[in-house]
């Protein structure tokens, strides 16, 4: 067991799985000799060669489109999208093909592939390098969306994602890449898709977060008797875990980095407002970024949900 | 006085002239039996296509895109594929499915609005109908990458139209195929129209074939109403692909004789004379004249071929129309490999 | 005043505005001689010429990208996207540029343009011809999303959209194109963006719908004392109108055609669960299509929310 | 024996050799004063670029992409534009902004993470930095359509890299420009690398210039480290564009002397010798040798030019660093023309 950060844990998952399964191939921009701009694919090119670790021309539509074709053929492509801000060019292939080929062919063809991408703000990056657009992909039936929140979950979820028969969008919180270190077993373990985890038990409030916001949420709940749910898989949602917790606590705070309007927080709130309404003691609060275009670094700190704002939301629901 | 550094050449291939005579290019070596089988498939494709139009008019199919006039491009290329090859059709490719022996009743079932028609039989490497124009191109490129990675002796053919050549997918796919020297054949049916947009408003290049110059591999223009030319060009390109020679772009110059689909009315935008002119270039007629010259065609043979085709399509129609209605639960079954928690709740409605 | 359907009303709006403002140009696939596949641009080519009614090569990314460039220059482009299922290729230009150029240039450049597109199922169309993906665009700050529900609102909203300084996605319910006829004034009137309308007053339940589902909702409420809100603008939301109604009725049913997961219904529910919770008498119900890939025509009728399902939801909330 | 039907030719243009001597192509007609002004702008661009790198290392700027080695391509082309023309840069175009007289302190402000740096002065038709590779291409095409529609005597220039040529945006934009014969110049700075991906893994075509063949208009390759060649090619292409002659693709063959950006380490993937080789082709050196031969350059002149450039950049830095912090409310002010109901609630946090 070694202590490692998320970049190392993801790298380990990839190299272990490539060792185990010859069908797994990696493709993207700068994933070869350069090892990816965040070094998640470091060393894979030397170890597995250019046929399995493919530097592609700069063309996100085509990269994801080609990965889909590979998956039709029977390979298990793992695409690296350099930043989530550049995934928009690939939305058509993800929505119209990856998500639908199983339906279209009644199961004869599938698109078992993973698109990995760093996401989220807070690293003082250029425009388009800080997107948190998970809700868009959660709205499309046929896609799965997964977000680890630590090195341990990163490795276990990536292995599950690669082995999953459906297309998975795998979001890696940029801010956490090197922030936390954790013991990560160098054995084959998985964290199952579709299962949320309760990171902290509590009885007064249910706080729901994921990925980039989990650390902040954990700091914010200090001193409160708050249950914290780390979703891990955003779509399909683990509704049972959420509803069970809310029925216990009766109060809900949802934290995410995307703007509130039509974010995943809205879905969680709606789910609760339909199926746990009678257990609620307070309004359901969302703590999100503002409903504005993502600012450049000088204003970034004002944009993101702060620990203080999360604490205030908890205090507010506790007043009921 | 700038220096000249690149001088690519684009060629046009034809085997038969409009009267079915061999031109300078020798015909591909095919036995009499093979030639007849191929001609019979052309007849079948046309019979199927005309039936589909009839069924649509009777309200028994949904919107349907006719292949009338494009049979040689579709069957000539698809019949040049071998077992193990992968085919990526667009939506106007009944002829490709028919060439591969795809169950005819399933084709009808699909166009009647039933996904089960596109459950491609195991072992047949053809993808379901792809509606978003051009998007099938990168898929074929990916499949070719996979074939190369697995060292399979297989190549991919991808079908698209003149309109499809305008999409970024075409560019990105062609470019990747060039970079990785992939076993893939890009087969453009330039049928002169993309719904109401004529070929010269789609691109200012003199040919579609010359677009291959941008990607460092060969592009060739072929008389798309000349079955033997299409067959030869595709067979050669597929062989080259499998030998590691990389991709080829084949532009089949052909014509969409019908409306765009049954939902379209081409008389709104297309001069009638143009369509008339192309009638003389009918691909079935040309093949028939060729067979006739070779002593392989008689009136009786034609009647037989037509009767056989009609019987097959009758049978297909009967089978398609006697299939039980799909189960609404199928919507849930095929979205993911398993039911989600939400779907498990929703499916209880049925 | 003439009686007309939505296609005619939209056509009238376009031709009137082109007459008034030389900066308005129309571009898209088959919008010229063919008058658009639904004939919304019929006659414009003959009247205004090929320089203002432009048949574009088949390239959705480039069409929207070019429209953005025209808007930078000062024109007011109105793009016709042939079907909403083909807009995905243009998402990058809408999200990364149209929505952000005002922020990026601090107001020096803007993208005042309209992308019109038919949307919605129920017309027995081919795959990808029935999308209802409005929620995706509502999640992106900087874009506006507008949906008329009748000939009258179609004309008035389209005029507002063209004159709006921000980029507007204008969704035209395919099913309603020729279904309803209405008196539509041949004068310059507008329906303001950002304002919902109460189509029917009531005291027991608030039903929220838009576009393609409004007619169905109106049939479903017959016999109930239900208030019906037609959103008209989906983003930015007219929160006041929604909250005011809910505070009055205490019961909510939201109807939409998209799948439930992260649909706009979730946002409405979350809005209410945060700001009107204490007025609620019942769980907030969403009546939506199922969370599955859109089926082909044979199963389409099972997919869409039926009048009966809407009625059942009303009855359910009335039980509280 | 297929028939040959298309024979496009791609040419390469150079005015100066590496020693600053005129080659066969005559130099564009520029007065001595103009030549000196242009050289001084090259010096300014390099001074600015080096300062930006220093500031970044000191933590006073964010990620910054150096233009070292590409100054001739950027300034040579931008200086060939006229008032009323529109320019569409990517993210690596400090030289373009500088050529147009964009306030230097605003450039620094932008790269320090402040949107206000990209509030382009009124009357200056240059777009803000565009980060998503290639996406600026259709914008330029749209602007050219607008110029044509308005009958303005204006053309657009759009900048992108070898990497950018792989994107669908390039294809769709080029194709539309060809169809509508638009007044737009596509200026590709082929600097041999797209981060770590070398030019020959980006596309298999021998040149980027030949990609114009796919769209029916002219493509030309230019020595991108030869200021006069770039200037001449762009000026001619812009003139042609305004005369209604349609678009041109110009490939400037140049080299990215630095890391991709300050966040990159090119030693991980790029052979040192390659960079060394290109040092001899420094675009400023070449222009200097040319001026020297014309008797326009002296050591003292060089010192003056550098001192003047340094003073301007000092001033810019001072101005940039003394600007007050942006108001968080700006986030709300510029998302839409007006506040939404939700924003009106949210902005109360400030
Ligand atoms: C991405 C996309 N945009 C628009 C459409 C609507 N549409 C269907 S076919 C067609 C024209 C296609 O022309 P072409 O590629 O030449 O093929 P053809 O129909 O002539 O076979 C259009 C615009 C579509 N299916 N997909
Ligand atoms: C659409 C998109 N994909 C990926 C990136 C990340 N990225 C930034 S620059 C770059 C390489 C660009 O190479 P090229 O076009 O040759 O321009 P150069 O950097 O050499 O000037 C990449 C991959 C991006 N900015 N946009
Ligand atoms: Mg066509
Ligand atoms: Mg480059």
Give an overview in words.
The N and C termini of chain A lie far apart (46 Å). In chain A, β10, α8 (214-220) and β11 form a beta-alpha-beta unit. Chain A contains 12 helices and 14 strands. In chain A, α3 runs parallel beside α4. The longest helix of chain A has 15 residues, at 6-20. With 320 residues, chain A is an alpha/beta fold. Chain A folds into 2 domains: 2-184, 3-Layer(aba) Sandwich (Rossmann fold), CATH 3.40.50; 197-318, Rossmann fold, CATH 3.40.50.920. A 7-stranded mixed beta sheet of chain A has the order 3-2-4-5-7-6-12, sandwiched between helices. In chain A, strands 9-11-10-13-14 form a 5-stranded mixed beta sheet, with helices on both faces. In chain A, strands 1-8 form a two-stranded antiparallel ribbon. Chain B has 350 residues and is α/β, with parallel strands linked by helices. Chain B has a single domain, classed as Rossmann fold. Chain B has helices spanning 32-57, 71-78, 94-100, 104-111, 136-150, 168-179, 199-202, 227-242, 272-279, 283-293, 299-322, 330-333, 341-346; strands at residues 3-6, 10-13, 86-88, 156-161, 184-190, 193-194, 197-198, 218-223, 248-253. Chain B has a 6-stranded parallel beta sheet with strand order 2-8-9-5-4-3, with helices on both faces. In chain B, strands 6-7 form a two-stranded antiparallel ribbon. In chain B, α8 links the parallel β8 (218-223) and β9. The longest helix of chain B is centred in the N-terminal third of the chain and has 26 residues, at 32-57. The radius of gyration of chain B is 21 Å and the shape is globular. Chain B starts with a strand and ends with a helix. The mean pLDDT of chain B is 96. The interface between A and C is large, with 54 and 54 residues. β1 of chain B pairs antiparallel with β2 of chain D, so a sheet runs across the interface. The structure holds thiamine diphosphate (TPP) (2 copies) and magnesium ion (2 copies). One thiamine diphosphate sits between chains B (92, 131-133, 160-164, 191, 193-195, 256, 260) and C (29, 58, 60, 82, 86).
């Amino acid at each position: 067991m070694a202590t490692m950060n998320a970049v190392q844990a993801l790298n380990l998952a990839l190299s272990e799985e490539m060792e185990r399964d010859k069908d797994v191939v990696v493709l993207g921009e700068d994933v070869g000799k350069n090892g990816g701009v965040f070094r998640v694919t470091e060393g894979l090119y030397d170890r597995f060669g250019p046929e399995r670790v493919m530097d592609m021309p700069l063309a996100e539509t085509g990269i994801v489109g080609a990965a889909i074709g590979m998956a039709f053929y029977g390979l298990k492509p793992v695409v690296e999208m350099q930043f989530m801000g550049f995934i928009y060019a690939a939305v058509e292939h993800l929505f119209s093909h990856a998500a639908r080929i199983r339906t279209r062919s009644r199961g004869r063809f599938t698109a078992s592939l993973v698109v990995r991408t760093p996401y989220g703000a807070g690293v003082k990056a250029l425009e388009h390098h800080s997107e948190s657009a998970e809700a868009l992909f959660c709205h499309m039936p046929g896609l799965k969306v997964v977000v680890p929140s630590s090195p341990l979950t990163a490795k276990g979820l990536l292995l599950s994602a690669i082995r999953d028969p459906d297309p998975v969008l795998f979001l890696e919180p940029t801010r956490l890449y090197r922030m936390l270190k954790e013991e990560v077993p160098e054995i084959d373990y998985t964290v199952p898709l579709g299962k949320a985890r309760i990171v902290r038990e509590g009885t007064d409030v249910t706080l729901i977060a994921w990925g980039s916001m989990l650390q902040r949420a954990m700091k914010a709940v200090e001193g409160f008797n708050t249950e914290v749910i780390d979703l891990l898989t955003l779509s399909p949602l683990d509704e049972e875990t959420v509803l069970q917790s809310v029925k216990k606590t009766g109060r809900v705070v949802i934290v995410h980095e995307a703007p509130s309007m039509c974010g995943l927080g809205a879905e969680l709130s709606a789910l609760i407002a339909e199926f746990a309404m009678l257990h609620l003691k307070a309004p359901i609060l969302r703590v999100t970024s503002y409903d504005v275009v993502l600012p450049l670094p000088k204003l970034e700190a004002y944009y993101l949900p702060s620990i203080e704002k999360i604490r205030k939301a908890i205090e507010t629901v506790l007043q009921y | 006085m700038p220096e000249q550094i690149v001088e690519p050449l684009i060629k046009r291939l034809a085997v038969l002239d409009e009267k079915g005579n061999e031109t300078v290019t020798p015909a591909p070596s095919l036995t009499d039996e093979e030639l007849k089988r191929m001609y019979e498939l052309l007849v079948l494709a046309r019979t199927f296509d005309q039936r589909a139009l009839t069924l649509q008019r009777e309200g028994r199919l949904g919107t349907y895109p006719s292949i009338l006039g494009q049979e040689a491009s579709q069957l000539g290329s698809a019949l040049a594929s071998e077992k193990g090859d992968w085919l990526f059709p667009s939506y106007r490719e009944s002829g490709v499915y028919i060439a591969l022996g795809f169950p005819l009743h399933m084709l009808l079932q699909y166009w009647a609005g039933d996904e089960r028609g596109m459950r491609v039989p195991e072992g047949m490497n053809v993808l379901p109908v792809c509606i978003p124009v051009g998007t099938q191109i990168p898929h074929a490129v990916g499949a070719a990458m996979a074939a190369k990675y697995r060292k399979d002796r297989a190549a991919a053919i991808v079908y698209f139209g003149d309109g499809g050549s305008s999409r970024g997918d075409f560019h990105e796919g062609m470019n990747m195929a060039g970079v990785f020297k992939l076993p893939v054949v890009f087969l453009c049916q330039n049928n002169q129209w993309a719904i109401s947009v004529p070929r010269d408003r789609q691109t200012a290049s003199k040919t579609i074939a010359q677009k291959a110059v941008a990607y460092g591999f060969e592009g060739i223009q072929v008389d798309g109403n000349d079955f033997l030319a299409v067959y030869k060009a595709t067979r050669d390109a597929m062989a080259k692909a499998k030998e590691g020679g990389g991709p080829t772009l084949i532009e089949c110059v052909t014509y969409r004789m019908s409306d765009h689909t049954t939902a379209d009315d081409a008389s709104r935008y297309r001069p009638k004379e143009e369509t008339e002119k192309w009638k003389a270039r009918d691909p079935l007629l040309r093949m028939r004249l060729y067979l006739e010259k070779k002593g392989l065609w008689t009136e009786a043979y034609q009647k037989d071929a037509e009767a056989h085709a009609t019987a097959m399509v009758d049978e297909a129609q009967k089978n398609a129309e006697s299939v039980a209605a799909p189960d609404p639960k199928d919507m849930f079954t095929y979205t993911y490999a398993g039911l989600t928690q939400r779907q498990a709740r929703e499916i209880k409605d049925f």
